[in-house]
Each structure stands twice: as C-alpha cells, then as structure tokens.
Amino acid sequence: MIKTVIAIGTVLALAGCATITRGSKDVLIVESTPAGAQVQMSNGQTCDSTPCTFKLPRKSELNVLVQKQGCKPQQIRVTNKVANSGGAAMAGNVLVGGIIGAGVDASSGAMLDLVPNPVVANLECR
C-alpha cells in the first residue's frame, strides 16, 4: 500500500514538471520576406538562407540580424516569457509538493518560451 501511494505521488509530481514535459530547449524559427536572407545571431550561430531553425535554450536572450544583399538589414531582439503550459507545470509542482521539480524547472528555463517565435523580418529592398 505504501509503495502504491509513493508511486502515485511520484507520477503526479513528474506529470507537472515542465523540464520533463517540455524540455529545456526550444526551436526558434527565423523567416524573412523576401526569403533567402542570411541570419547571424549574437550567440554566434548563423544560417545562409532563410527560412532557418535553431535549437536554443528556452531561457536565451539574443539579437538576430537578418540581411540580404540589396535590402536594409533588420535586427530583432529575442527574449523569453513564461509560457501558459510552463506556468501550469510550475503550478502543478507547487500544488503537488514538487519543490525539487519547481527548482529544476526554474533553473532549466523549461517553463519559458522564446519570443517572438517565429522571428519574421520584412526586409526593405531596393
């Protein structure tokens, strides 16, 4: 009986853990109009031709430079915010008593989403 209660408690605690359900990384999509622009991010990652995708920690904050020959370059700031499902997972941790899970979620950034996502650059071309 005690083993069953512990098993059920463990499952409930883990069900709300954003680190397990969402992971600590997110896919950032960068698009441009016109397509085919180069992307350079302040963390050093690049892409030769939009659309591009990058796998980044959810708690990232960086600048995205989108440029194409004959067009005015555009820089867009990417930050993060608490996601609806991330906040629900954190609340689940608190309600079920998963203090450790709440700490892990807070440190991993799993309850966050990158914003804006997708990054859309409308380039002014000559």
From TrEMBL:
PROSITE patterns: PROKAR_LIPOPROTEIN (PS51257)
A GO molecular-function annotation: translation initiation factor activity
Keyword flag Protein biosynthesis: yes
Keyword list, A-Z: Initiation factor, Protein biosynthesis
Superkingdom per UniProt: Bacteria
Annotated protein name in UniProt: Translation initiation factor 2
